[in-house]
Amino acid sequence: MKPNILITGASGTVGQYLLPFLSQKAYPCIAWDRNKTSISNYESMEKFVLSSHAEVVIHLAAITSFKESLRKNAWQVNYEWPSELAWICRTHSIKFIFISSAMVFSQQQNGPFTLDMKPNEQHGYGGEKRQAEERVISQNPQSVILRLGWQIAEKGTNSMLHYLDFRMNENGKIMASTQLFPACSFVTDTVKIIEKSFDFEAGIYQLDSNKEWSLFHIAKALSGKFNKNWLIEASDKYHYDQRMIDERININPLSFHLDFS
Ligand SMILES: NC(=O)c1ccc[n+]([C@@H]2O[C@H](COP(=O)([O-])OP(=O)(O)OC[C@H]3O[C@@H](n4cnc5c(N)ncnc54)[C@H](OP(=O)(O)O)[C@@H]3O)[C@@H](O)[C@H]2O)c1
Question: Is the CB of residue 9 below 6 angstroms from any atom belonging to ligand 1?
């Protein structure tokens, strides 16, 4: 029997792929409806989680926008909600999978990031995610935390493709750094690892498909794959290596999908 899955943030960029992927594999899935269950009341959250008969809770939901006007409830959504869910799952012996981000590492740190490197982002979304990771572990030491890189997805707004389209529309060209090595993966590969994580032991895991490519090279290869009419110019202004290493994660490398020749 496949376990019952409860997913938060199911309508987001990753959720739009994860929910159909798991449903197709015959997992009974329920999406958290924020119109029905408030995220600010512990008792109603606990009641809902129990009524869902969830055996695994996958917490995707987050305020991922960097626009200040959209970040009003960011602390509650990005820190307090995962904290409460981790506790509810601990109390009722439900597996808790918290989806985190490569942005827990700050720009003062330089990758490739290995698991022994302690992230230290203090501000904004990455700072909230970093503190949430620590809180989730203290609330529920059995939690599984998956750090994702930038997602490559055709649907949703929080994706590298969407960002590059936006840059192109805004500026008539895309300036892409040859010195920026982003952590990233195709969302279709990410959801496969999320499924595998149902059997992972407690701890932090890092999912990254980028072995060696700069944003410039990735943008070029994406343009070819998705028939984009992008004008991409190389820049060397922005130096940062965000790549993450975790030998335990068997995720397709970018070269599985993209032609870099
Ligand atoms: N996409 C990426 O490139 C990327 C990279 C690294 C890490 N991640 C992590 O992956 C997870 C999923 O990201 P995503 O790309 O799917 O994000 P997204 O497209 O921004 O979607 C996030 C979802 O969170 C829920 N949400 C948004 N605002 C909320 C609010 N004010 N209160 C409560 N819930 C709210 C919404 O789902 P509902 O309306 O269904 O509730 C929303 O669709 C996040 O935890 C993110 O940190 C993503």
Answer: yes
